[in-house]
Write a structure and sequence with these properties.
The protein has 770 residues and is of the alpha+beta class. It has helices at residues 2-17, 26-31, 42-55, 57-71, 77-82, 86-94, 101-139, 146-187, 190-221, 225-228, 232-255, 269-300, 303-340, 346-376, 381-412, 418-423, 425-457, 463-468, 470-503, 514-542, 548-564, 566-580, 649-664, 702-719, 737-748; strands spanning 589-592, 595-602, 606-610, 616-620, 627-629, 635-643, 672-684, 689-697. Strand 3 (606-610) and strand 4 form a beta hairpin. It is elongated and about 160 Å long.
């Protein structure tokens, strides 16, 4: 560390001798070149500082040793000490052509880790230097002017005593009106309570202002009178009083101790008093220590003592807060979970539960960041911390607000107005299928952006500077253009799909035909594929991917697929011609490849048919050699009615006409074209005579009309005693005459005597029975 400080001092001197504008800006001097001719009055001061370093034997020996090492074969050490100066830039430019992309990345990572290690070294060195200053004061190496110390303490004690006396008197008066306000807040609503809290907070701030004003009046009329005015130590004391008082006002606004009716946050009385008292101790310790004790030590003793006191005060305050967080980590987490159970929405419950689980991580990070700022930037730490804290609060609140809005949209979905939803019922479904996924990505980007902005605010990463750099601008513009391409492609696709939905809706004076519905469905599928491919290629092109090989490769792959998948090509070509010829549409009843059923869907290569049994058949167009469509123009119901042979044909025809007349009196009349077409007798069957008639119907209604007509046929035939025969069979057996007569006699119940010759005596006895 000593060598590092010595190197920095030497380079500081050399660069000042080379015409540095300001002597105190060591880092700027190390990074900027200059000519020796541009001399300023600071050159003399720099020369004197360098002479003092060289006059010190120990420092001179260390410097000589370091220079001998550099001259003995360790080039580049000076570049490392100079940071990112012109020498480093020249070296990088001269070796840039010889270093590959991978090596450049490794070098950059190495330089970043080296810079990080240097920062850690600086922090440790400054910490050690601060503690060493305190040791010097305690050993007596730095003399203390006790008369000056007593004078400063006396002035500070007087103005603080007067300021606090005026403040306590104003607080006593204010507490007289607080009970009335508390009663009104207890029985009022949430808005009333918030308003009264703002009023009491304003009154508290006014009491602090009164104490500050009285303190300044005493300071003006005190030591030295109006001629000398307010001394710097008095001003420091009053500033510390004001900052501490306003900090306590902020704490009372948040926790409202001893005023539960004004408390906005869900703290219990015990918890509010606990946190208010503990944080107030830290406020007194930190504010009076940093804003009063440190400057007073600088004025009364030495800057070395003030620097040591600042480090000790900030370090002990950090340890105090970290111990406080560790002790209450579990209690705060359990309290957050218990309060989350009282919330009405699941979103709020999860958000509050996650906040309870992670609150200590953010608190630790904030405390460490504040400590590092106090150590590395002690002179402007207050400005940096206040600015960074305010920006951090705004950033976190904005990020949480955006995340909550997007989470609510993700959970609740997109709700379109009722009139738009009725016209475009599929639009809301498409939006809810795409927008929540997009919002999840945006929510993650918001979370990541919040973290990066917090790191930039606290100086850990130069995110905003990187975005303004050439690399960051190119990256943001390229990926932003790719995102815009995808977004515009989605909007175009959504507009086209909505237009298709409008064209497929039937309205007054316009009925969508099955052909239009089928063609628009095919157009929808084809356009979706085209817009997806084009958007993907354009997005890849915007982020720097060469899409030429992709297009060429797609062409080669498509050619190979066309040769290897001839059936697929045949499916597509045959399907295209089938659609051009308007052979099949959705909703048609067709017979395709021996399957009869209703067409439920058509793609570019197949048709989906559901038969009467409910079975779904997917038939590729390559297997379709003929299409029988029952839904073109009009249809016929063919009635083939069988009557018995003894039926009067004219009488039967007149009965069929009567059945048709009754059919026309029903709701089926609108589905029938013309009169009944009577064809007459078409066939003589085995047991009936077939009479055929035909009814012309609208496409697809021939089956329902036919079923109703058959019911009326049966009704009229029963009324007129016209027999609808069923199959009858007459059997004829070829038997001998005697066997037939015996059978007839048996059927008649008696046996008829047959003319059989009488037997003679000459005949043998056994022939009697022949």
């Amino acid at each position: 560390m000593k060598i590092m400080r010595l190197c920095l001092a030497v380079f500081f001197g050399f660069f000042l001798l080379s015409a540095v504008p300001a002597a105190g800006q060591t880092e700027s001097a190390a990074s900027s070149g200059g000519s020796a001719s541009n001399e300023t009055p600071d050159v003399k001061q720099a020369s004197e500082a360098l002479i003092k370093i060289l006059n010190d034997p120990k420092s001179r020996d260390e410097l000589i040793e370091l220079l001998e090492k550099n001259a003995g074969g360790e080039p580049g050490a000076a570049d490392e000490g100079a940071g990112d100066g012109n020498a480093a830039d020249t070296k990088e430019a001269s070796s840039g052509d010889a270093v590959s992309a991978g090596q450049s990345f490794v070098i950059r990572v190495g330089e970043y880790t080296r810079a990080l290690a240097d920062e850690i070294g600086v922090i440790l060195d400054r910490s050690r230097h601060s503690l060493r200053g305190l040791l010097l004061v305690l050993r007596g190496d730095i003399p203390i002017k006790w008369d000056r110390v007593q004078e400063v303490l006396l002035q500070v004690a007087i103005v603080l005593t007067v300021a606090y006396a005026a403040f306590l008197a104003a607080q006593f008066v204010a507490r007289l009106i607080y009970p009335k306000m508390s009663v009104r807040a207890r029985y009022g609503g949430g808005l009333m309570r918030a308003g009264i809290l703002m009023v009491t907070t304003t009154i508290d701030a006014m009491t602090v202002a009164i104490g500050l004003g009285v303190g300044y009046m005493v300071a003006l009329t005190g030591f030295g009178g109006l001629e000398t005015g307010v001394t710097i130590q008095e001003s420091l004391a009053l500033n510390a009083f004001f900052i501490t008082g306003m900090s306590n006002v902020a704490l009372r606004f948040v926790f409202a101790p001893k005023r539960p009716e004004l408390r906005l946050l869900p703290f219990s009385d015990t918890g509010a008093d606990y946190w208010y008292s503990r944080l107030r101790i830290y406020m007194y310790w930190n504010n009076f220590g940093v804003f009063l004790a440190v400057p007073a030590a600088n004025l009364a003793v030495s800057f070395v003592l003030g620097n040591a006191l600042r480090f000790i005060i900030v370090l002990t305050g950090m340890i105090y807060l970290m111990v406080l967080i560790k002790r209450n980590r579990v209690s705060v987490r359990e309290g957050a979970k218990a309060y989350a159970e009282t919330m009405h929405t699941t979103l709020a419950q999860r958000a509050l539960a996650n906040l309870g689980n992670l609150w200590h991580v953010g608190a630790y990070g904030y405390i460490i960041a504040v400590f590092l700022v106090w150590v590395t930037r002690p002179f402007d730490a207050t400005t940096i911390i206040l600015r960074a804290t305010a920006l951090s609060i705004v950033t976190i609140m904005a990020g949480m607000l955006l995340s909550l809005v997007m989470t609510r949209a993700i959970k609740g979905g997109i709700r379109l107005p009722e009139d738009i939803h009725q016209k475009l019922p599929a639009l809301q479904y498409r939006l809810n299928a795409f927008v929540p996924r997009l919002l999840k990505i945006i929510r993650f980007v918001v979370f990541l952006g919040t973290i990066l902005l917090l790191l930039d605010i606290w100086g850990l990463l130069a995110v905003i500077d990187w975005f303004y750099s050439e690399t960051g601008s190119a990256l943001v513009s390229s990926y932003g253009a790719a995102i815009m391409v995808l977004l515009v492609a989605f909007l175009v696709w959504l507009a086209v799909m909505s237009w298709v939905d409008l064209r497929l809706q039937s309205r007054a004076g316009y009925i969508v035909s099955a052909r239009e519905r089928t063609l628009f469905q095919l157009f929808r599928n084809a356009f979706t594929i085209i817009i997806m491919v084009m958007a993907a290629l354009l997005a890849l092109s915007e982020i720097g991917v060469n899409i030429g090989p992709l297009i060429a490769g797609a062409g080669v792959v498509g050619l190979a697929i066309s040769f290897g998948a001839q059936t697929l090509v045949k499916d597509i070509i045959t399907g295209a011609f089938i659609q051009i010829e308007n052979a099949i549409n959705e909703g048609d009843v067709v017979t395709v490849a021996g399957i009869t059923g209703t067409v439920e869907g058509i793609t570019i290569r197949s048709v989906r048919i559901r038969d009467l049994d409910g079975t779904t058949h997917i038939i590729p167009f390559s297997s379709v050699d003929m299409v029988s469509n029952f839904m073109r123009g009009f249809s016929y119901h063919v009635a083939l009615i069988g009557v018995s042979y003894d039926t009067d044909i004219a009488y039967a025809k007149e009965a069929m006409v009567e059945a048709f007349r009754r059919l026309q009196e029903t709701d089926f009349k609108s589905k029938i074209f013309g009169d009944l077409e009577m064809h007459g007798v078409t066939m003589f069957g085995a047991s009936s005579i077939d009479i055929r008639a035909r009814i012309k119907t609208t496409p697809g209604d021939q089956w329902s009309v036919g079923r109703a007509y058959n019911e009326f046929i049966k009704q009229v035939f029963d009324e007129r005693n016209i027999e609808i025969p069923f199959p009858q069979v007459t059997y004829h057996a070829a038997t001998p005459p005697f066997a037939a007569e015996d059978a007839l006699q048996k059927v008649g119940g008696k046996k008829k005597k047959t003319d059989v010759p009488e037997p003679t005596d000459d005949a043998p006895p056994e022939e009697d029975g022949r």
